[in-house]
Design goal:
The complex is a heterotrimer of chains A (289), B (310) and C (545).
Chain A (H helix, E strand, L loop, with lengths): L17 H9 L1 H18 L1 H4 L31 H37 L1 H16 L2 H12 L3 H28 L2 H8 L4 H37 L11 H8 L8 H28 L3
Helix pairs in contact in A: 2-4, 2-11, 4-5, 4-7, 4-9, 4-11, 5-7, 6-7, 7-9, 8-9, 9-10, 9-11, 10-11
Chain B lengths: L1 H28 L4 H6 L5 H10 L6 H13 L13 H36 L4 H14 L3 H15 L12 H35 L2 H8 L4 H38 L4 H11 L2 H29 L7
Helix pairs in contact in B: 1-12, 5-6, 5-8, 5-10, 5-12, 6-8, 7-8, 7-10, 8-10, 10-11, 10-12, 11-12
Chain C lengths: L1 E4 L5 E4 L4 H19 L11 H4 L14 E6 L14 H7 L7 E3 L5 E3 L2 E6 L5 E6 L13 H13 L12 E7 L3 E6 L6 H5 L16 H6 L7 E2 L9 E6 L13 E6 L3 H9 L5 E2 L7 H5 L4 E6 L3 E7 L4 H4 L1 H10 L2 H8 L5 E2 L22 H10 L6 E8 L3 H15 L3 E8 L1 H9 L5 E7 L6 H8 L7 H4 L5 H12 L3 H18 L2 E6 L2 E6 L2 E2 L15 E2 L1
Helix pairs in contact in C: 10-12, 15-17, 17-18
The chains are: A mainly alpha (289), B mainly alpha (310), C alpha+beta (545).
């Protein structure tokens, strides 16, 4: 996809030491981000408990109702409770967002590490493939894949699996290239450690920080992309409550029931804010002084 | 430098070919029969088979691909299944719109990013900086299509400053029709660019050579100029990547603003299984991306010699 | 239409001489319907019969000139009448080419390029009389040769989507310059309806000497407007007034600018912003707020469209009549139209739409009743309910809404529905291959004659679609359909179709969900605009104040 967060540490300190937790607690961005995301995730988990209505219960004679004592945030075009659907939407979207980047994260990191560490022919081949995938305009690729696989969650997973791993690969490769030249890797190689051990103990811990930081903003972009796919009619399919299709369905009523599109949009923005703050905070914490 | 450029050029050709193959395969993997789209529900199996034969869809994938490549070599992009006209004429009619949209969006993005990032970097950790940072962070999560609709409601409906949609008939109306779409597209990438440039500038501000410049008594403005030049490189690379992303997102933006560009042509063609059009438009868009990436790489290498060693 | 009695006792419908009265009566009907539903364009001078004059004569109380700007959702890709079924093409080319008969706003046939016809005793030979004085847009007169060429072309085109409507024609010949004789393979009551379809519109013989491609770039027709340099899928198209148009004084306007805007919101915004004076395909959700705008009119025009939930009888669960009846009983069609169409559509009942000839309001339909649904299911082979899949065209918001409503309502009686949305091309392929359990789509009549819908949806062997892909095969119903096709007596035909509707309603092979109208919105400056139940609108009679 798009951004590579270059501010992440190149010579990152290896992962969680006492200093790490101390610095983590001191980082305001990180703490605020965790609080926001934590709240949303909690709401998502407790959805069945805290939602006033089941998300797909229709009331066809009371559609597009405004704020009322029975429906705190009004009803949608099929008379379903907006508040309940917002809460259940968090469930769908966060789950889809997190799951959708698992494959790109793992596969991309693996490819980037191999390319950066071994260099030479392997590097060229992998990078050429990366170039081809990146050359595909993102939405074109995603839309085409969704058409092949079919709309809905499965299509989204496949589309991101194919389109998204490349940026992780590129970022990890750059980081690996630098680490490869560092002292302790040279020492480990001279000491005769196997490649696998070196990768696992010395290379990855230093490079993965970049990937994690990027993953935070990637989830945001994935959620936005899912919302956009919903606008094009290719995203999560009804009746599953999801912020994207809620925005799309509410679009026709912008002038009369603007909340139907606005609230899910705000939910997306807040979630994105939280995740980005976590990403920023982590980047700050992992940066050497 | 020349060797680097040549290497990037070779890579670009390879990528373009890879995109062609991938698009071709992807399309033929998709379910859905273009013959049925054209002939309708009541088409007889014979009519369907005849049309498929006419389009060459019944020969092997390999020979279809060779035929496509052969056509490409002769500048023939095929004939649209649905419109029955040459694909290249369809593309020619619309490429101006998409190109203008991307160009104007890039201009807007730069005009907005540079002052905003410098403003925040100079006032690091003060209120203004925090506001800019918060806005950029929030901005990443903003769905562009929704932002576009809001812009239309406010600037086209309430305040009749810009047309509600479409392309218009004169150059003047073309430009006015592009403002809101280009702004929408620009806002999709400004947050990321601002973050990157701001951080880049801060890092450079803290660098040794800046302290040296300051100790030599250089005014803040001149220092800023130096900082900018150095901070620009990673952000430039980022800009290149994002312009490439913009090229792809024209699909959505053209839908929101009813612009008759390549993006909307592609969306329609995919749903109609219009193979020749999908193949060629994807190729054109991908080549656009390749060109942008190539230029970005070359310019960045020109500015920062370290990159050429990669 | 007038009844003529032949010596052998058979009665025939023939176009009569009193068109003036017909026009007035039809206009009154439309006006009344309009007033009852939504505020529609007023029809000034309704009481002044004198000003209506003879067919074709222009009114005196209109403003002439001006260009109508019309935003439509789909751009035309071709202007060839015989080779398309897409709305974007049809409603453009029908301003350029005209057929021998047209369908009026009231859904009846009206002589147009023909003034009438006579039919032989064995009902297999029709002789059409062409209207004198009709010219093409290039000034050349319309002759019988042109008619023979055009209809033959449509009939013989194997890839023509509507060529099946001409199947009854064995041959056509020109008799002199102004008579065309059609020989049919058997007595075929729907013949004049078939002739009126847009695919059978008239163009110059042999394209006036040009090649086919050349001709359709600069088409020549008898219609009120002309096009120069047509480009498929353009963002706009300008149609200019045809100076040789056979109705003197018409069209009133000088030109039509079609702007093709596929986004619903965009079209609305352009109408509200004054950039266009008319838009098509108005979303039902917008009707209420559009009505509040004092500068705009909303037109709800009855259509021949029926939205259907189709059940695949190749599956055991839907081959069971009681299951199908249970499903029909379980769907609250009143609530559906209330929520999904914002009250603009009428709830479904008979599989004929109310605006179609021979629709029977007395059809014994299965009313909404959860208890009746449960009782029916209990009598079936699947009393405990079952799971099933509902296939829809995912790109259309309306079907998503319908599907979700149906899903909830069937859950109540123990039928668990999962939704299966596909993109348009995949969707069409799936149901035509019978790769579905239930699916939603719409059925439409392209012509005035009820036979098209009846045979398409009921005649499993000959209808061309295996009963709308449901595989519904009821020999009694099929026989009745075939009888009606050869029956020229309107009263007898009416009885036959009433029977057919009753059988279908009780067998429930599909559930007619609703009858949606065509919804257009326009500036009050636009007068005289109307849409026939086939969805076509003529523009020679509109004017801009």
């Amino acid at each position: 996809m798009t951004s590579v967060d270059i501010t992440a540490a190149i010579d990152a300190a290896p992962v969680p030491t006492p200093t790490f937790w101390r610095r983590a607690r001191a980082s305001r961005s990180l703490m605020i981000g965790v609080a926001i995301v934590g709240l949303i995730v909690l709401a998502a988990i407790l959805a069945p408990v805290i939602s006033p209505y089941p998300p797909d219960q229709q009331d066809l004679y009371h559609i597009l109702g405004g704020i009322s004592s029975k429906h705190l945030l009004g009803t949608d075009d099929l008379g379903r409770d907006e508040l309940s659907r917002l809460i259940y939407g968090a469930r769908t979207d966060i789950l889809v967002g997190v799951l959708a980047i698992v494959f790109p994260f793992c596969f991309g990191t693996m490819m980037g590490t191999i390319a950066g560490y071994y260099g030479g022919r392997i590097d060229s081949v992998i990078m050429r493939v990366v170039d081809v995938v990146i050359a595909f305009p993102f939405y074109v690729l995603v839309i085409a894949l969704v058409f092949v696989v079919g709309p809905g969650i499965r299509g989204i997973f496949v589309a991101f699996a194919v389109a998204d791993w490349v940026v992780y690969a590129r970022a990890i490769r750059s980081a690996t290239l630098v680490v490869r030249e560092s002292n302790y890797v040279a020492a480990a190689q001279a000491g005769g450690l196997s490649d696998a051990r070196i990768l696992r103990r010395h290379v990855l811990p230093n490079t993965i920080a970049q990937a994690i930081v990027y993953a935070m903003s990637d989830i945001v972009l994935v959620i936005v992309a899912v919302v956009t796919l919903g606008y094009l009619g290719l995203g999560v399919q009804p009746p599953t409550a999801d912020w994207g299709s809620m925005i799309s369905a509410g679009q026709d009523y912008l002038t009369t029931n603007w909340m139907l599109s606005t609230l899910p949009g705000i939910a997306v923005v807040i979630t994105g804010l939280g995740l980005s703050l976590i990403g920023d905070g982590l980047a700050d914490v992992l940066r050497p002084e | 430098m020349l060797r680097y450029t040549a290497r990037r050029l070779a890579a670009a050709f390879f990528v373009a070919f890879g995109v062609t193959v991938a698009t071709f395969l992807l399309l033929h993997l998709a379910p859905g029969d273009p013959a049925r789209v054209v002939l309708g529900e009541r088409a007889s199996p014979q009519a369907l088979a005849a049309l498929r034969h006419q389009w060459g869809l019944d020969s092997s994938l390999g020979s279809q691909f060779t035929r496509y490549l052969d056509g490409l070599a002769h500048g023939n992009l095929g004939t649209s299944f649905i419109n029955k006209t040459s694909t290249s004429s369809l593309i020619r009619d619309r490429i101006g719109v998409s190109a203008a949209l991307v160009a104007l969006a890039t201009v807007f993005a730069v005009i907005i990013t540079v002052p905003l990032a410098s403003f925040a970097a100079v006032r690091k950790d003060r209120a203004a900086d925090h506001i800019v940072r918060a806005l950029s962070v929030a901005g990443i999560g903003f769905p562009a299509f929704w932002f576009g609709i809001v812009l239309i409601e406010v600037f086209a409906l309430r305040v009749h400053a810009f047309p509600v949609g479409g392309w218009g008939s004169s150059t003047e109306t073309h430009l006015r029709s592009l403002v809101l779409p280009a702004l929408t597209a620009a806002f999709a990438i400004v947050p990321i660019l601002v973050r990157s440039l701001r951080v880049g500038m801060i890092e450079v501000f803290n660098a040794d050579f800046v302290a040296t410049l300051r100790s030599k008594g250089l005014g803040e403005r001149r220092v800023l100029a130096h900082v900018m030049r150095n901070a620009l490189i990673p952000t430039l690379t980022l800009l290149g990547i994002n312009v490439a992303y913009l090229i792809g997102s024209t699909v959505v933006i053209e839908r929101v603003f009813d612009l008759n560009g390549l993006g909307s042509l592609l969306l329609t063609a995919i749903s109609q299984r219009d193979f020749p059009v999908v193949q060629s438009v994807t190729l054109v868009l991908a080549i656009g991306v390749v060109i942008v990436n190539f230029l970005t790489d070359v310019i960045a290498a020109e500015l920062d010699p370290r990159i050429r060693l990669e | 239409m007038v009844n003529v009695r032949y010596p052998n006792g058979k009665e025939m419908l023939v176009s009569g001489p009193d068109e003036r009265t017909l026009s007035r009566r039809e206009l009154v009907k439309v006006g009344a319907a309009g007033a009852a539903s939504v505020s529609v364009l007023s029809i000034p001078g309704l009481g002044r019969a004198a000003s209506l004059g003879r067919l074709g004569a222009a009114r005196e109380d209109v403003t002439r000139g001006g260009t109508l700007k019309f935003a439509r959702s789909i751009a035309p890709t071709t202007l060839d009448p015989a080779n398309t079924i897409i709305a974007g093409d049809i409603y453009t080319l029908d301003k350029i080419f005209e057929p021998l008969y047209i369908t009026t706003v009231a859904g009846k046939l009206k002589p147009w390029l023909a003034t009438g016809y006579t039919v032989s005793k064995d009902q297999k030979t029709f002789t059409f009389h062409l209207r004198p004085g009709v010219k093409f847009s290039n000034g050349k007169p319309l002759t019988a040769e042109d008619v023979v060429f055009s209809i033959n072309r449509a009939a013989k085109d194997k890839q023509g989507p509507l060529s099946f409507l001409d199947f009854a024609i064995t041959s056509l010949e020109a008799k002199g310059k102004s008579k065309v004789v059609a020989h049919l393979s058997s007595p075929w009551a729907p013949f004049i309806s078939d002739i009126s379809v847009f695919a059978n519109a008239i163009m110059p013989a042999n394209f006036g000497g040009k090649s086919q491609t050349e001709f359709f770039k600069n088409p020549v027709g008898t219609g009120p407007f002309t096009v120069k340099g047509f480009k498929p899928n353009a963002s706009s198209l300008t149609l200019k007034r045809n100076p040789h148009y056979w109705q003197a004084g018409k069209p009133y306007i000088n030109a039509v600018d079609f702007l093709f805007v596929d986004n619903d919101n965009q079209r609305l915004l352009q109408l509200r912003g004054g950039q266009v004076q008319a838009i098509d395909l108005v979303p039902p959700s917008q009707v209420a707020s559009l009505k509040k705008d004092s500068k705009l009119h909303v037109g709800l025009y009855p259509s021949w469209q029926v939205d259907l939930l189709v059940l695949n009888e190749k599956l055991a669960k839907f081959a069971d009549r009681n299951v199908r009846r249970a499903i029909t009983h379980a769907i609250d069609r009143n609530a559906l139209v209330h929520a999904a169409s914002f009250g603009t559509a009428k709830p479904g009942g008979s599989f004929f739409p109310p605006s179609l000839q021979y629709y029977s309001a007395k059809t014994p339909t299965l009313a909404y009743s959860v208890s009746a649904a449960k009782a029916s299911l209990a009598q079936s082979k699947f009393p405990k309910g079952f799971s099933t899949e509902l296939l829809i065209d995912g790109g259309v918001q309306k079907w998503q809404t319908f599907a979700q409503i149906i899903q909830q309502q069937l859950k109540v009686i123990g039928i668990n529905v999962t939704l299966r949305p596909l993109d348009h091309a995949s969707f069409e392929q799936a149901f035509q291959k019978f790769d579905y359990e239930m699916f939603i789509d719409y059925a439409i009549n392209d012509i005035t004659d009820a036979d098209e819908m009846a045979s398409f949806e009921v005649d499993f062997q000959n209808g061309g679609s295996s009963s709308y892909w449901s595989s519904y095969d009821n020999p009694t119903a099929i026989n009745l359909v075939r009888q009606a096709e050869a029956e020229f007596n309107p009263a007898k035909r009416k009885a036959l179709y009433a029977q057919i509707q009753s059988i279908v309603a009780q067998d429930a092979p599909f559930v007619p969900l609703d009858y949606p109208p065509y919804i257009y919105a326009m500036s009050k400056k636009l007068q005289g605009f109307n849409v026939n139940p086939g969805g076509a609108y003529r523009l020679e009679g509109v004017w801009l104040t």
